[in-house]
Structures are given as structure tokens and as C-alpha cells.
Design goal:
Blueprint: E1 2-9, E2 12-19, E3 29-38, H1 41-44, E4 58-59, E5 63-71, E6 83-87, E7 95-99, E8 103-105, H2 112-116, H3 119-132, E9 140-144, H4 149-160, E10 164-169, H5 172-178, E11 185-188, H6 195-201, E12 207-212, H7 219-224, E13 226-234, H8 248-253, E14 257-260, H9 268-281, H10 283-287, E15 295-300, H11 304-313, E16 319-323
Parallel strand pairs: 9-10, 9-12, 10-11, 12-13, 13-14, 15-16
Antiparallel strand pairs: 1-2, 1-4, 3-5, 3-7, 3-16, 5-6, 6-8
């Protein structure tokens, strides 16, 4: 079968298409015929030196949707023919394996492409907004880099939870597009200069939760923008800035909570817990149409290099999806 491989070396991320053996499901796994897979920025920014060290190539892709073709020992509740989505290492392949604990049945109202845009992204969002962020109806949510895949999903989930949402982006056109999804206040900026606009929007109070997709260059401004007992989630650093000062006086006086979010560094049991939380708290809103993933563009399987280039250009709004061969 065909499978895309990715390798980070010498400050570059390269991908190549290979012919490999079809995997077989082990204990607690299901084999899935991939129909579509979502791109995630974190996998491709490894070449910026943020995560990965130089090393061998590995199967690319992290989330997908498709049909189960075989189940391993110990699997219950799922069978061949079921439409499923989930976290899926090696998702840019014709067939791939999913851990049954992270495998979710696809709601009937979703296309393959929509389903593929959901699993990893919305499980991360669940971690930020609900499990750790404890976002409540009526609270203020600030999302830096709101047009990214995680940013848009955070906006949609935040609105479903009843929050009031502020987002930053360097593009006025992107902010305008996201108003249709419930973006209440759009701040056009690529810099750490949004505190004043946030305070004006919130009547001088500040926001209750920040989702920082950008990184260290805006970290201090995010802290400044928090209200009393505010929470700050750091999920990305596309700016490449991994260091920032912390205003300890503000941390103390405002009783702030600062936390990080990473799927890659979690244990299988922790990821399984996150999947169960997503199913309980966010999947109902997806199944009834209150949340519908925003897809910027769908690429053919063989066009992954072009999809990667679009992601790295930062020109998209929402998710980029790869469609597997029929």
C-alpha cells in the first residue's frame, strides 16, 4: 500500500511517498481503510527546531476517518464496516491503525473530510477549554492566531459552551470570515499589542481564558490580558519563540493558572481519557450540527506536498484535509 513518510533534518521537513506492507491490528487496535486525513501544523513545524531532532523518516499524519476493515483481539463495540474517526499515527496512508480507546464512530451528518478534520484537533480543544480551562457560559475567551485549525475549533467550541470570543489575526479578511462562526471581537495584529483592545472589549475586566496558538512572542501580552483567576493555555509556537518572561506579581495578585497542552507527549491512557471527554462534552454538538468543522481546502492524496505548502504559507482558515484514493 502507499504511505507518506516525513523526516525532519537540517532545519527542513521533507515528505516522500513509499510502498509499504499493509499493517495488521494488534490487541486493542482496529485497522482502518482511510478515506480522509487532517493536516496538523505541529507535525510540519518540527523542522523549525521546536520538537524534533534529526532522525529517520516515519509515517506521516495524525488524524483520520475511514471504515474499519479488521479488529484486533480485545476489541468490543466496533466491527468491520463501521465508519470511524480518531487519532491515527500514519494517517496519510491507504490503511492505518487506531487504538480502539481513541476510535470514535462518525456521526451520520458528517462527510469523510469533515470527520477527518475533527479528532485530534477537537480533543486538544477539549483539553484546553474544558478539562483544564474550565470555560463557562458567559466568560470571555481570547484566541491568538484564531484562523488556524485549532483556533477555529476553539472558537466553535467556545461558542457552543456559551463563551464570548475575541480573536487575533494578521488578516482582516480572515477575521471577517470568522464572524459568521461567532467571533465577537476581531483584533487585526501579528504583534504583542492587543492588550488595550482586549481591555476595551471586556470593559476593563480582561478575559477568563486565553488559547495561545502563536507562542512566546505574545505570552506576556496574554498574561496582561487575563482577568482575575484567568487561565492561559499554551498550545503552539509557530513564531518559533520558546522563551518569555512571566510577570510573577500578576500571577500572584490575579491568581492566574498557566498550563500547556500537548497530545504528542501524553501517555496512551491520558489520550484515552481525553477521547472519552471529547465524546461526552463536544461530540453531541458536532452530531446535532451546532459545531461543523471549517475546511479551507481538500487535496488529493498524491498532492500532500501542495497541502503542506499551503499550511506552511499560513494562508488557510480552518483545516486542510487530504482525501484518500477511492
Amino acid at each position: 500500500m502507499q504511505s507518506w513518510f516525513i523526516q525532519a533534518a537540517d532545519g527542513q521537513t521533507t515528505i516522500d511517498l513509499r510502498e509499504v506492507a499493509q499493517p495488521a491490528p494488534g490487541h486493542g487496535q482496529v485497522l482502518v481503510r482511510i478515506r480522509a486525513a487532517g493536516l496538523n501544523r505541529g507535525e510540519f513545524i518540527a523542522a523549525h527546531g521546536l520538537h524534533a531532532k534529526s532522525g529517520g523518516a516515519k509515517p506521516a499524519g495524525q488524524e483520520a476517518a475511514g471504515e474499519i476493515t479488521a479488529v484486533g483481539s480485545g476489541v468490543t463495540g466496533l466491527k468491520a464496516g463501521d465508519r470511524v474517526m480518531g487519532r491515527c499515527p500514519g494517517a496519510f496512508s491507504i490503511y492505518a491503525l487506531m487504538d480502539v480507546r481513541e476510535t470514535v464512530k462518525v456521526p451520520a451528518n458528517l462527510s469523510w473530510e469533515e470527520a477527518a478534520a475533527i479528532p485530534l484537533t477537537f480533543m486538544v480543544v477539549h483539553d484546553m477549554l474544558i478539562a483544564q480551562g474550565q470555560l463557562k457560559a458567559g466568560e470571555w475567551l481570547l484566541i491568538t492566531g484564531v484562523s488556524s485549525g485549532v483556533g477555529v475549533a476553539s472558537l466553535q467550541a467556545g461558542k457552543a459552551l456559551g463563551a464570548k470570543v475575541i480573536g487575533t489575526s494578521g488578516s482582516a479578511a480572515k477575521l471577517e470570515k470568522l464572524k459568521a462562526l461567532g467571533l465577537g471581537v476581531g483584533i487585526q495584529t501579528r504583534s504583542s499589542d492587543f492588550h488595550e483592545a482586549v481591555m476595551q472589549a471586556t470593559g476593563g475586566r480582561g478575559v477568563d481564558l486565553v488559547v495561545n496558538n502563536v507562542g512566546g512572542s505574545v505570552f506576556a501580552e496574554c498574561v496582561r490580558s487575563l482577568a482575575f483567576e484567568g487561565r492561559l493555555a499554551t498550545v503552539g509556537y509557530v513564531d518559533g519563540v520558546l522563551k518569555s518572561e512571566i510577570d510573577i506579581e500578576a500571577l500572584h495578585a490575579k491568581r492566574l493558572k498557566l498550563f500547556g497542552v500537548s497530545n504528542k507527549l501524553r501517555t496512551p491512557d491520558q489520550r484515552a481519557t481525553s477521547a472519552r471527554g471529547f465524546v461526552a462534552d463536544l461530540l453531541p454538538a458536532i452530531a446535532d450540527g451546532r459545531i461543523r468543522p471549517l475546511i479551507d481546502r481538500v487535496f488529493a492524496f498524491e498532492d500532500l506536498p501542495a497541502a503542506k505548502a499551503l499550511m506552511e504559507s499560513n494562508a488557510h482558515v480552518g483545516k486542510i484535509v487530504l482525501r484518500a484514493p477511492a
